[in-house]
Records
---
Amino acid sequence: MTTHSPAPTLTPARPVVVNAPSAKQTMRALVKHHAGSELQFVADRPRPIPGPRDVLIKVSKVGICGTDRHIWEWDAWAASRIPVGIVTGHEFVGVIEAVGAAVTRYHVGQRVSAEGHITAGVDYNSRTGNAHIASDTRILGIDRDGIFADYAVIPEENVWPVHPKIPDKVAAVMDPLGNAVHTVMAAGVSAKSVLITGTGIIGLMAVTVAKAAGAGRIFATDMDPKRRALSRKLGASEAFDPRDSAFINEIRATCRGEGVDVLLEMSGSPAAYDQGFSCLRNGGTAALLGIPAKPPTFNITQHVVFKGATVLGINGRKMFETWYQMEELLISGKLELDEIITHEFPLEKFKEAHETMISGEGIKVVMSVNG
Amino acid sequence: MTTHSPAPTLTPARPVVVNAPSAKQTMRALVKHHAGSELQFVADRPRPIPGPRDVLIKVSKVGICGTDRHIWEWDAWAASRIPVGIVTGHEFVGVIEAVGAAVTRYHVGQRVSAEGHITAGVDYNSRTGNAHIASDTRILGIDRDGIFADYAVIPEENVWPVHPKIPDKVAAVMDPLGNAVHTVMAAGVSAKSVLITGTGIIGLMAVTVAKAAGAGRIFATDMDPKRRALSRKLGASEAFDPRDSAFINEIRATCRGEGVDVLLEMSGSPAAYDQGFSCLRNGGTAALLGIPAKPPTFNITQHVVFKGATVLGINGRKMFETWYQMEELLISGKLELDEIITHEFPLEKFKEAHETMISGEGIKVVMSVNG
Amino acid sequence: MTTHSPAPTLTPARPVVVNAPSAKQTMRALVKHHAGSELQFVADRPRPIPGPRDVLIKVSKVGICGTDRHIWEWDAWAASRIPVGIVTGHEFVGVIEAVGAAVTRYHVGQRVSAEGHITAGVDYNSRTGNAHIASDTRILGIDRDGIFADYAVIPEENVWPVHPKIPDKVAAVMDPLGNAVHTVMAAGVSAKSVLITGTGIIGLMAVTVAKAAGAGRIFATDMDPKRRALSRKLGASEAFDPRDSAFINEIRATCRGEGVDVLLEMSGSPAAYDQGFSCLRNGGTAALLGIPAKPPTFNITQHVVFKGATVLGINGRKMFETWYQMEELLISGKLELDEIITHEFPLEKFKEAHETMISGEGIKVVMSVNG
Amino acid sequence: MTTHSPAPTLTPARPVVVNAPSAKQTMRALVKHHAGSELQFVADRPRPIPGPRDVLIKVSKVGICGTDRHIWEWDAWAASRIPVGIVTGHEFVGVIEAVGAAVTRYHVGQRVSAEGHITAGVDYNSRTGNAHIASDTRILGIDRDGIFADYAVIPEENVWPVHPKIPDKVAAVMDPLGNAVHTVMAAGVSAKSVLITGTGIIGLMAVTVAKAAGAGRIFATDMDPKRRALSRKLGASEAFDPRDSAFINEIRATCRGEGVDVLLEMSGSPAAYDQGFSCLRNGGTAALLGIPAKPPTFNITQHVVFKGATVLGINGRKMFETWYQMEELLISGKLELDEIITHEFPLEKFKEAHETMISGEGIKVVMSVNG
């Protein structure tokens, strides 16, 4: 290494904020206040103070994610991962209220959402357009304070200005919609036959996204007859109950006896792995988003090696290619989300909101915070 | 090279045909009988005799291609390329009437169309799934007898069995539809903004194909107001008259000030090259199908090198990936071709058929031969 | 479907052969004569007679494959798959001795090898440049008579003319070399770090292929110190004994703490699956060629889904893109195969040949038949 | 848009620097002091002061680019683009001397190079891993002060930490080496035949890069016999004088009569465009880096449309995929740069340095500034 003059002392960066809240200002927030189920509504949480490269956002609307259900129910995963005391939530839309002194990209008053995967920006994936799978990711509402609150702080690199044509209700759920778009776009569905195994929130989004993104026939599986009906309404040619495996031969027969071109696995069910890959033609592509509770023991030799299949692990959304794809699909009016975003509650009714989502009565549930 | 016993004499392959027509059997055909405009209707053309690896097809319906217009009008290109005495035409659907003795893939009675690019099967592209750009291609109805006739002979490698859900009228034009599908799919339009410069027959097909294949906003240009209106009906967000170049800034402005993701050049007009690339964002993709009368002098340094653009030359259709893509789009009901296939005539009215197409009164014109 | 005149009777294709052997001509061959281990040398096997689209090849040299070892040892797989009475073997080079009457692509006297995956040519993969994963593949020397003999019959579609610069000894093993090339090229190694788990015959070939195809650093694992030494000689930066899993951290550390870009799994060992994927960086690509005796139970959620990895099942060789790639690598002198093709025996010494290969004393063993 | 409380006043960001130079500190620099040829050596240029997100780098070594020649000679392009008074130069390696207060990624003492394309980070390409073709790029040493000086200021997003295995002399020219790597990698040369038209500095680098990245046979053209000899030494199978166009048939003949798989156009010569595309096989890929003085009028219909060719415009280097690829190729020892980096001068001998490069006596010329 080149020699150089003695290294100077590195003084710490001082937070320099424009329009910063005073230390005394408070806000409403939903907090995981103890190691157990539910969340606590807190009226006097101190407002977060942005660092020099952060923006402070006044939150308009938020979405409740499947992850938020795990946190609400405090299952084993949540207990092992979530720091007690945190503000939860990561799906949102809001308006920039203040910016750190070194912020250059955005300004006060912009309506924005944001990507919840926060990275230092120095690893391979962060520097090549794939920050969504960076090695050092910290996630909003999981590893640090989230957005179930009046205000939230976000690094400017993560901010996404929302197109005027996209209403707040939809902008609030661009995070999970991005999961569906990333899965569909990674696999590539244009002029292809597609099977979606599992139509929970993201699976249902994937039906309308796959149709919009150019899939030919779309097949879906789900045990819930209401979800199957909704799949058909959103564009599926046929939706099957996976408990009767006859659908495998039916799909294969209608696809030249060979199988579908693309499998989108969205259930995390080991049985769905087996069924889905049995429906996939040789040389087909499978994109895996669902997270099995334990590793599925499917026959990789038969399903992947002999078939010459391509398997894509899907995590998050591309930063930010997926966001641009979402914007184009949304502003061209190709997505049908009205029947997927079923309920909206004010923040104070967070308990009803979570229960509506957990019971399955609602699909995607949104809470309005300031708007 | 390894030595071996003396090379035996190679006797020529004898044609061995199943269900072959007798030498005396004749048929109706449209023939380029002299070096000049129009075609001649011939009632007693001898039926072609298939070789051992050919099929004999009884033609049901045929389409009139833009190429057939050149042949009809006997322009400089046609005069330099078309052998006088040939039966013309290459877009069709029919039924297999007889098969050569060494045919193994298809059988008498199958309803089929076929790919008109015929190759020896030994060059790089033929052996890697890209026979459409083989170095030794001979084209049906151009280099050898075509399908404006009761019967035609096709090598079995070129046969495409038509799905039962696809009606004859549509199956007859899978060749030009394939041009549109190949262009759209090569560029990749899923969740992207698209500009189509020139909406002749294939350009209009490209509008409905791009929409079906997942494009977001679709912009089109054409000087003809009827074609612009039809573009909008088929799915274009906006269609512009290219004589007013203000559309370039309009498109760029609505695409983040950067431009469209994809350009599909279908006019062959030098001005369209310039306009189209001016609308393309940095890093965008242009697929070029239109054939300029003379090489366009557009600024490749500005439009391609500095922009980091990708440019794809498009010729024919992929053999046979494009045909599978077409089938999936057609049987899933995503293409609107009713307003593109505007006229149908019996073979005997070939003169009206050609004139309807040439005058612009019709768009795609089909002739019924035997069905 | 279009109606048509009554379907004529289809008479069967008659074999019409140029330079065909008479029925009385015989040849030497290695035959799986009974359901048990070893092969039998037969001096008077009738010469095979080519059909109208086949070529008859006089075999010069052959290679012994790992599959031939299974057949020799008559393990459970072989007992369940191999028809007793068959001539085995599928790796070879030879000279065309006769051609069927409908053969158009090749001629008597050409030096050729051939692709052993034989398909009807009508399914999706056969028609899109991926016949290697066709749904109806029959394999030479496994499902039908192979090439451990003086003569063999091959469909002309499967023939590969051998470049004059490639010696017989190498041409005889283009089949397994093609496995290595397909694996390396499918993953894409250019300017990437690569880990190869398992350096049997194809794994060793993959080391020299990866180097030639542009890999940066190449890491390998194998339990055999001789194979590890040979890996290093062929271009591996480092070769590790997988019984000490410390190599995982060592590889990760030297790859920015993130891991290798590419994993080529060539062992079929469940432990190698786990180790290999542990070395793979987020967003990396794994190509799986090795065939586990039973499905590995590796953690697909951790290794593929969360990592955003791409997994490619590898089977055979692309027909025929891989063959062109091999030719380019071979004629540009970039592959080192001299230390991989370790032994050559005459056909009559087939027992020594097989035992040399099975004992591990030899790596790739070739038998000379007629040359 | 969501309503919100009155927008607060946005106060400007204050520069906050760690270890900042005092305003009185000066440095040596090469300055374009007037609108004319050459540069002026200035001993007392004020040291630049980094903003909150910049690093201050003490420059070790710099490279002289072809662009610097245009600036030196003050041709029409330079006169139209370069602001008089600027410090020029953009290829370098150095050591971080100070960091702005909001810098988080790098620290004082790190040995670094940097990407000279500076963007605001808000357009499509900047947010999708393609900042090298951002719409708002400003270039170091062209649009703002460069690195022919003791010190330079660089935004932290643009910094590239240099691997310890890469010597300063090589690290100083990673910018132009990146042009060669980006061109080669964009085209994809692994197991392919390649033609490089024009072996100036970057063309010669492309020869060694193409070989390292896995090309099969490499052909090159150049009018200078010394460059042709060096091409062969670096790995070209053959190098031709383009004034005798017989090489076109020679290349086509040795490539199956079809042509090379890949063309890398590095001359910007209209004749090379025609010759290069004439050597390209149907379906081949051409990557265009050379910048013609005026738009070439080559026949795009014949060379691109009918051929089904893919054409890639190449500009800069991918930020930062190309840098990772370079690092892997360099640390695995696959690149031969010793005969390309021919001369090294101290900064004060800048006149000899520029003249050595301009005369063609040297190829890549490096100047040492502080190391």
---
Amino acid sequence: MNRQDLRTLLEDVQAQRLTPEQAHGRLLQFLRQAPFEDIGFARVDHHRSLRQGFPEVVFGPGKTPEQIAAIAERIVSAGHSLLITRTDARAFDTVRQKVPDATFHELARTITRAGNAPPGKGIVVVAAAGTADLPVAEEAAITAETMGNQVDRMYDVGVAGLHRLLSEHHRLIAARVVIVVAGMEGALPSVVGGLVDVPVVAVPTSVGYGASFGGLTALLAMLNSCASGVSVVNIDNGFGAAAIASSINHLD
Amino acid sequence: MNRQDLRTLLEDVQAQRLTPEQAHGRLLQFLRQAPFEDIGFARVDHHRSLRQGFPEVVFGPGKTPEQIAAIAERIVSAGHSLLITRTDARAFDTVRQKVPDATFHELARTITRAGNAPPGKGIVVVAAAGTADLPVAEEAAITAETMGNQVDRMYDVGVAGLHRLLSEHHRLIAARVVIVVAGMEGALPSVVGGLVDVPVVAVPTSVGYGASFGGLTALLAMLNSCASGVSVVNIDNGFGAAAIASSINHLD
Amino acid sequence: MNRQDLRTLLEDVQAQRLTPEQAHGRLLQFLRQAPFEDIGFARVDHHRSLRQGFPEVVFGPGKTPEQIAAIAERIVSAGHSLLITRTDARAFDTVRQKVPDATFHELARTITRAGNAPPGKGIVVVAAAGTADLPVAEEAAITAETMGNQVDRMYDVGVAGLHRLLSEHHRLIAARVVIVVAGMEGALPSVVGGLVDVPVVAVPTSVGYGASFGGLTALLAMLNSCASGVSVVNIDNGFGAAAIASSINHLD
Amino acid sequence: MNRQDLRTLLEDVQAQRLTPEQAHGRLLQFLRQAPFEDIGFARVDHHRSLRQGFPEVVFGPGKTPEQIAAIAERIVSAGHSLLITRTDARAFDTVRQKVPDATFHELARTITRAGNAPPGKGIVVVAAAGTADLPVAEEAAITAETMGNQVDRMYDVGVAGLHRLLSEHHRLIAARVVIVVAGMEGALPSVVGGLVDVPVVAVPTSVGYGASFGGLTALLAMLNSCASGVSVVNIDNGFGAAAIASSINHLD
Amino acid sequence: MNRQDLRTLLEDVQAQRLTPEQAHGRLLQFLRQAPFEDIGFARVDHHRSLRQGFPEVVFGPGKTPEQIAAIAERIVSAGHSLLITRTDARAFDTVRQKVPDATFHELARTITRAGNAPPGKGIVVVAAAGTADLPVAEEAAITAETMGNQVDRMYDVGVAGLHRLLSEHHRLIAARVVIVVAGMEGALPSVVGGLVDVPVVAVPTSVGYGASFGGLTALLAMLNSCASGVSVVNIDNGFGAAAIASSINHLD
Amino acid sequence: MNRQDLRTLLEDVQAQRLTPEQAHGRLLQFLRQAPFEDIGFARVDHHRSLRQGFPEVVFGPGKTPEQIAAIAERIVSAGHSLLITRTDARAFDTVRQKVPDATFHELARTITRAGNAPPGKGIVVVAAAGTADLPVAEEAAITAETMGNQVDRMYDVGVAGLHRLLSEHHRLIAARVVIVVAGMEGALPSVVGGLVDVPVVAVPTSVGYGASFGGLTALLAMLNSCASGVSVVNIDNGFGAAAIASSINHLD
Amino acid sequence: MNRQDLRTLLEDVQAQRLTPEQAHGRLLQFLRQAPFEDIGFARVDHHRSLRQGFPEVVFGPGKTPEQIAAIAERIVSAGHSLLITRTDARAFDTVRQKVPDATFHELARTITRAGNAPPGKGIVVVAAAGTADLPVAEEAAITAETMGNQVDRMYDVGVAGLHRLLSEHHRLIAARVVIVVAGMEGALPSVVGGLVDVPVVAVPTSVGYGASFGGLTALLAMLNSCASGVSVVNIDNGFGAAAIASSINHLD
Amino acid sequence: MNRQDLRTLLEDVQAQRLTPEQAHGRLLQFLRQAPFEDIGFARVDHHRSLRQGFPEVVFGPGKTPEQIAAIAERIVSAGHSLLITRTDARAFDTVRQKVPDATFHELARTITRAGNAPPGKGIVVVAAAGTADLPVAEEAAITAETMGNQVDRMYDVGVAGLHRLLSEHHRLIAARVVIVVAGMEGALPSVVGGLVDVPVVAVPTSVGYGASFGGLTALLAMLNSCASGVSVVNIDNGFGAAAIASSINHLD
């Protein structure tokens, strides 16, 4: 039961589609679930969808394929959308034994199974500077889509060839929120931030070498952006950027 | 002429309140202005309100009181809202000779003069961990207010005394976007991020000593927040956080 | 012979259970041992239990399984408790040929064999923020138990879901000392430190990515904790935290 | 009302020195106080003594002398011990107008007024490596004393002249907890940690130049101590070390 | 005697305008000068113009006004161009007592007196992102001019308002070498580097706050530029950038 | 069509070797090409040779051999020079199936196929401090050669054996631009910069261990060079240095 | 009584110049002194000359002029050489009231009064790269001289003008130990280390700006020197380098 | 021909054991050798023994076994001592085909073949803090021995068990120079430096984890040593420390 379900239930009572007794029963059934379910190596949070707008997301690293599959099964069996990030084909082989209709996105390194996420209000643009930034950009795009958002991908638009970005200006302006993914000198968010007036969520990537220091340079550059309207998430955190963008895009 | 003005003008044409010729004349008058005005030591950007949703903001450091006053005069005479950040009483003395009805906010170190900023849709909560964080929190609050947002201040709610924060839970939940300001270990955004489902903009402050490294620790902590929905701006950048929050709060 | 043994011996003399001559003989026998025993690649310290309250602990990295087993054998044959940290199954295979009743704790990566460690006075709570922190938390818990302490594990209580921690408040309050293990933004010790008045030993972990910099962010955050009563050990140093907690918990 | 008061009250009931009604009245009177008192620029926490074992401590930086004096007055009028850290003579002049019997400790940069802090169980040794470390060492010593502990100062015992430390071995061994204060290479806690079996709280100081990086080197060295039993607080945080030591020293 | 003088002398011999004996005499006179002149607190290098293309430049910091003036006098009396960087009005007052026709450039913090520097072949563009970068940009521009180059200043063209830069595209393309000066996120060199095919010398400035770390962020960003053709000098080193640009601009 | 081709075409018209109609046709044919060609995973930029003086260069890391080969084929079939950097023998095996006459440079880790790059005006010296710097030095040398420059390699001339460098002084002086490659303490550019008056492009390498921090030390040292005329590129960026040197060496 | 005095006394006994009784008396008199003298704010170490080859040295920072003078008086009255470092004229005014024949070295910021330091065996060369390095170089030179060494100063011999260093090659070769002082890129020790076969002690200085990071760059460069025979001390630690050099120069 | 050989030759002439003609011939024969021999991938320096006191040393990393063996053969065939550092068993297999009597030191990772190195004057003590530091300590010890020094190894004497070090005080005092090897907090050099008056060369090692940052902590601690007489080399640079120690130990 997510927020949308809760609202629908109350509207159904108002509209006489449900008796108060029926609504009461459904609420009790939901509340009788423990807010989190202890499955030994993890506590699966079943109320997060209500508190936070989207069910618990599984972060892959440090979990065995079996653990990931077990958590996935609990989430799906509770009726939630499934999103597993930073995972791989080996984990997917195990997951799909429990969740046969899950999908693996190789470039994005995510496993998803669409649930009943309410739709976002506008378009989330995901812009990426170079081809090496695509795994992070795709993590953001797949996450945003799984959370119910319409996504417009705009890749390979780095600042050293401005014509590529400027020729897409109309698509940028159509966005309700823009995720900008870039490594190396991390300059793209500043340029995009100067072209739009909607929120820009910047994701530095670890793409680069030498004095890129694993994405630190891009991170620092983005934090110092001279364009207002730019906020920043952790290096390579495509998921986090999408969660913020989705949160913005679901505001009434 | 900001976006609201532009929309009003077009609606007036549609509603026959203006003839196309009148509207045309007004548009021409606006466009005849150079997009930026060169006043020697700076180029004042008069179209930014149209492109970016808010007129140019004056960043005080590195400018003489006379330069600040001159820019302020140009902005006000062009009919824009005035916002000067990181400034002081000495600059204000000079500014108010040119802009008599400007206001100086001592704690926030800003000078403002309200313009016709369109109102935001919801409430912007500004939460601050400790009293030493107030200058940055106030910079954010004053900025957000000047940009047309209703602001709810929630100060001195650091995580080492959770009861202070939890007793304000209802105010947090009423927000459309939350700005969280904290120095030292920068833990407040994670706790707030776990309590709300709207976007959280985290502002690390340089409050602390020793291994706080001028706010670096709080910055890093916020970037690593285990709560999703948290994005981060530069250390002490209350203005930037408010600009993002306002941009989110003005989304339809 | 540890301190407890020494005290017992003296009490036995006082209580006439031992003649001074007998006690003298036993002491001589103990002192005739060299304070450390040179076994070629290491000097095994047999008096540490007397000086430091617990026998020498074997730190695994950089030692071959054979070397670890040889040291283990010397420690056990001297009648001490055995604790080997940062080790693995391969070393365990070799160790148990020499010390058949040793136990391997896979998650904690430790090998132990209980000795006659005197019991601690109260409960040591080991709280961990996320599941990825468990190897470090378990290193702390197993170490504390081997050193004679009663341990209460409280895992997966990160600050982004405060209800999980607050629902365990009574267990926290029952502790004589609390070890808090967390990676990423390292916020948990501040929250715990605000809830209890006993010493909190914070252990940053290398859990995280990007700007977590291998645990540096959590380390810095913990050092800047706004809660008093929080001290910090090295990144991933579960053993060290437990040694401190045990030292505190054994104070009369 | 601190914990000791609470316990005394209950014992008085048990011993028939108070009727339940009298005790009830006193408890009600205490609880009728708001847990924190809002004095405009700060919320003075009156229940901290109960929750945390010591009343709220005033951290001086960022507060005007008038603000410090106002908070001090509220704390003292509520019957609590007064401790103001990182302050100066100018603030003291203002404070003593409100709290005439307060004392200023110049080297320690603290203002105190003893309250009814319950006595610690043993001795807190404060050891400092060099004379330049004394301000931090004294902040620790004065804090510990104000919190009810007996303090033994052992200054100028740096590792480059071991005989100075070794000649005080007996005093070290008599401690229930040891605070070690050192700058530069921060080696003293490792040496002390090898000589005692009680908890050692290490305080790095910003004493040094060049590659001491404002105390970072001492901090890192202490975190990497090869002696077990050593935990660390922030650079120059003499207060924090004393709070931990006092917490340890007040354990039953 | 600089390179141009040397070439002219040899051409005069070839053209019979000088006898070999006359040329020999002039060369001897030059060579009889010591290559450097010891004036107590410095060795003034009189042959640098021949070796390095420009006479010795005086770096102001760490020298008294009297020392600067003494060096300046030696340089001018040897017939060289004078360039003093990182200096101030107080030093200028002393210098002009010895070198009456020297000029002080307040914004650039330099003192100059034109000599016979041979002219560069093309135009050196100095582009600066923001008004706070002007002191560094002017140091570069004045240095380049003093070294004989034609300079085109292009200020306040930061990437968050691309139209300001793009409207100057024709001036960029006319340059033989471009110096780009920027602080904060240091993105301008990447954008400029994508628009021109001549060498770009990037100068990070210490403009910014918080995570700009005194120019480190801009420096790192520029080193990671995705545009080829961009090389970088030290933070705030306008002089160094101009020396390189002049060296490039004087290549035949 | 590169710039040389464009100039030739116009000269042919002037010299009546082409009618305006013929020239017009050829220009149309070129312009009819899209400026970049989307091949799915990348946009190959066919106009870069005109804008930037050299066709697009393929950066190997993060691309599969198949992707590299596909891009290589598009570049070659468009008539451009081919340069692939940071690649390996496995990629070469795939590339030469599409581009049979490509060459693999093992030490330089590059694949090249000469095109019609216009010749540089002078000599590019590539100087390297130690044998471990050769991969980076060769990347620079091969890049410069592929871009049409004459290269003079001067290897193993580190500053700890000055006689090796000084014995090559005449070769240094003959250069139009010098690339200096060094790891460890990165001192060579300062020494070379003091010996020549042409531009020096310094390339720090990751050669070293311990406090070389992956080339950071050499990078910082080069940025602080006391020799003017030295600019710096990213760690190990031999390609970038050569691109700058070639840009300088192609100036008229 | 230093080592030389001790040896002389024993030789006098052997040579019958002293009776054993006389020698015994003198030794007793010396040993009757406490090894350190507690003067309240410091413990003056009177046996260091015997243990360490030179009496205690006073490090100025953090001590009042009165404290410095008091320590100085105790050292001189015990018959030792006096060396105060990092001090100033104000302290000197106070010191010379107690020690009238002390000398203040302004550039070196030291106060000295020669004692009976035994002479070193050879020459200590102090080489400095630039004029801004002179305060550190002079601290080294004055320290070495006060410790009994013959010093040869070789200033302004930075690597960007190699001829200045090479012309002094003969003086370098005559040294028994060389101290090399340099800021910025810190390259001089590598070049000197390649020219001599005696120990080189490198002193990085905080001279520089921007990416010199207060001497960190020079420090790192020196630690990575490709010349063997180079060891390093802390930034600006001229005293430390001289102490090492003197220790080397006094070896038999 | 090393320095000793050169001196002997001249003494033989003086002593009439050689005629001047014979000596002349031998010198010519030596000088006829090129000072360095180019073998394609390296320049082997045959005069270094004369200039620097020891022949060229081969640093293994980045060289193939074949290259190492080829260089080794050239060094040995020129009559020099052989020292190869940072190498392994695989390289040794190849080397001993060319140099059959070479020796591989597994722990020290070096290959040596003794030459005619002149003997040092005293004892070089190599002290190491922990067993994990032994590879670096052995690199130092083997290097020092190969360079002709008598070495006294003193291992496992870390500061957390001072009695182990103090019981070896007499061996420390017998040294002419002490190499101290330590990782983690790097405190041992300070303690040793306070016990001896001969030069101490400190070697930080990368032993440790977490906040040891690969040896950075030990390096910084050693640079900040409060004991005078301590200089420092790069992390893990056992070879460098031994080269310095040998240089000191060979001073007359």
